[in-house]
Amino acid sequence: MTFVEGTTPYPWPWDGGLDPARLALLVVACPLHPGRERPTDADHPAETLAAAVRRAGGRVLSVGVRPPIQMSVRPRPRPVAPGTDDPVLHPGRLIRAAGWDGFHGSRLDAVLRGAQRDLLLIAGCCLETGVHSTMRAANDRGYECLLVTDACTSAEPDLTAAALSTIEMSGGIFGAVGDSGAVVEALHTLMTERTTS
Predict the structure, then answer these.
(1) What is the per-residue DSSP string for 10-39?
(2) Order of strands across the sheet that contains 144-153
(3) Does pLDDT of 197 surpass 70?
(4) For tag attachment on the chain, is the N or C end more exposed, with fewer CB atoms within 10 Å?
(5) At what angle are helices 160-172 and 132-140 packed, to 10 degrees?
(6) pTM assigned to the model
């Protein structure tokens, strides 16, 4: 059995079946409040996590969400750069949703089920809106979700603790919470075990 260390409120995934063949990283991109910048650094935890997921054999999906109401400024979401070995998406393409939830009006569920991916790492921007809504929708559809806290950007940092608490309440009503370092380490351990057995 393989878990990601240090996840709360329960060891993730719940069944101990961390398997890259079942794994997908959803990187959610949505409009930011004016004045807030989306991280673009190649060393940002979301980029590092995406590289580790691809190396292990998982899939990385960029999901563009948008508000259901008209905004005066609608910045174009920036996806995590897909690798050329990622057959689910063509380079530079987003799965576009029709609202804050990445599953709403999009092909995301069909893509994940077609690729037999039921373990989801959730990252991106913004934590309290598109990321949170996408995670709740994934949980409702039966996916086992881990929010990767340091690979998310908050629109309002004062709300971050409350957003995380909502995920963890009732024993993990929407999934679990962890950090990118622990996920990368768990995937590295799995790859090492594969090569030595």
Answers:
(1) S-BSTTSB--GGGEEEEEEE-PPPTTPPPP
(2) 95-96, 59-64, 23-29, 119-125, 144-153, 176-178
(3) no
(4) C
(5) 20
(6) 0.84
